[in-house]
């Protein structure tokens, strides 16, 4: 299997916002709220040969889910939005593009202006 990038976000609004910025095909998975270690493992089993990226909100809920992912998948790369924006879905597109570009994702150039 070719290495693929898998991006894990909290909800559908996060997925839509990030997907709009991305230029390359990336599998985006939503946790849809609170998850357990068992649910994380079950959700990511089909992606065990992929590069995992975690992109959660900068709030209490996002940090709790992030901690679970750090324990279950320490090899996952964690992306962080700035605390001032709190949520991925409210982060400006140009900021999202910069965050993703820093981790070698291909982004639409118009979001870098």
From TrEMBL:
Signal peptide: none
Domain of life: Bacteria
Every Toprim domain range: 4-92
InterPro entries: TOPRIM_dom (IPR006171)
Protein name: Toprim domain-containing protein
